[in-house]
Automatic annotation (TrEMBL):
Organism: Halobacillus locisalis
Domain of life: Bacteria
Keywords tagged on the record: Flavoprotein, FMN, Oxidoreductase
Gene Ontology MF term list: oxidoreductase activity
InterPro entries assigned to the protein according to its UniProt record, in alphabetical order: Flavoprotein-like_sf, FMN_Rdtase-like_dom, NAD(P)H-dep_FMN_reductase
Domain NADPH-dependent FMN reductase-like: 1-143
Designated name of the protein: NAD(P)H-dependent oxidoreductase
UniProt xrefs under Gene3D superfamilies: 3.40.50.360
Length: 184
């Protein structure tokens, strides 16, 4: 499967650290998968305003294509001001609602307070449900204290939860292969 690991921000390093960790666990799965880490900071993003995809710059067109062509996703996001970053929401606004239908998605997030995990439940999961994604139930939320002052992941419990999330994500990928595509 073609797995897109999406870093939903243009600032900071913790979500990237989490995606690199997950990428290692995906490589350890019994089946091999093609993974690609997409960092939004590497793209010249444009504000999505409803125009046809071919009217955006080359970077936006490439990003939209990469998201729509993936078979499964791990979405990593920081929580800013009690919300997902606008850059991540902008990507969702650019993608066709049919593009992510019945595709597996796992979520990892990082925030400055323990209560920010609710953003996953109240904002990100409803968006993914709109797309009719197959969202794994065991997202991983991390807090600043799970990282060293240099930004390295130092919490063994988080590593174990990431491994378990990857295991369930793999089962969701297997299930998704059996779903007949919706032609509407």
């Amino acid at each position: 499967m073609n797995i897109l690991l999406l870093n939903g921000t243009i600032v900071g390093t913790k979500t990237g650290v989490l995606l690199n960790e997950i990428n290692q666990y995906i490589e350890e799965l019994p089946e091999s998968h093609e993974t690609r880490i997409v960092n939004l900071e590497d793209y010249d993003l444009q504000f999505v305003d409803g125009r046809p995809t071919d009217q955006y710059n080359d970077d936006m067109q490439q990003l939209i294509k990469e998201v729509e062509d993936a078979d499964a996703y791990v979405i990593a996001t920081p929580i800013f001001q009690g919300s997902i970053p606008g850059t991540l929401k902008n990507v969702f606004d650019a993608v066709s609602p049919l593009a992510m239908r019945y595709k597996p998605v796992s979520i990892v997030a990082n925030g400055g307070t323990l209560q920010h995990h609710l953003v996953i439940e109240n904002q990100l999961k409803p968006i993914l449900n709109y797309f009719r994604c197959m969202v794994t139930p065991n997202y991983v939320y991390t807090h600043t204290n799970h990282f060293s002052t240099q930004g390295d992941l130092i919490d063994e419990d988080v590593r174990n939860r990431l491994k378990e999330m990857t295991r369930i994500f793999n089962q969701y990928m297997q299930m998704s292969r059996e779903i007949e595509p919706d032609k509407n």
